[in-house]
Write a structure and sequence with these properties.
Layout lengths: L3 E4 L2 E3 L5 E7 L7 E7 L6 E6 L5 E3 L7 E6 L4 E6 L8 E9 L2 E4 L3 E5 L2
Parallel strand pairs: 2-11
Antiparallel strand pairs: 1-3, 3-8, 4-5, 4-9, 5-6, 7-8, 9-10, 9-11
Length: 114
Amino acid sequence: QVQLVESGGGLVQPGGSLRLSCAASRSIRTYMGAWYRQNPGNQRELVAIITSSGTTTYADVVQGRFAISRDNGRNTIDLQMDSLKPEDTGTYYCKAWFGSLEVWGQGTLVAVSS
């Protein structure tokens, strides 16, 4: 059974930065990963995605502020978040596709507030 564990969430002031990390229990070298976020009452939305070759795609609302990366040696997918805004508040989830198997992490809470 594959597991994803997120870390790095917390409370930050507007304009600040956080780095989220997602650790996989198996090799992610050939698989795609992504970060999503969700607020109560809203649908889970895609924030950023990274392919096995390192190609990245971002939601328009985070383009230029967030950066997704992967470390195949450590089996991690990270999300660097800069210039944070209150509307970035939410629970952030890591997701990976292992062939036909889709795996989600348990989520980590990010709160942007002064």
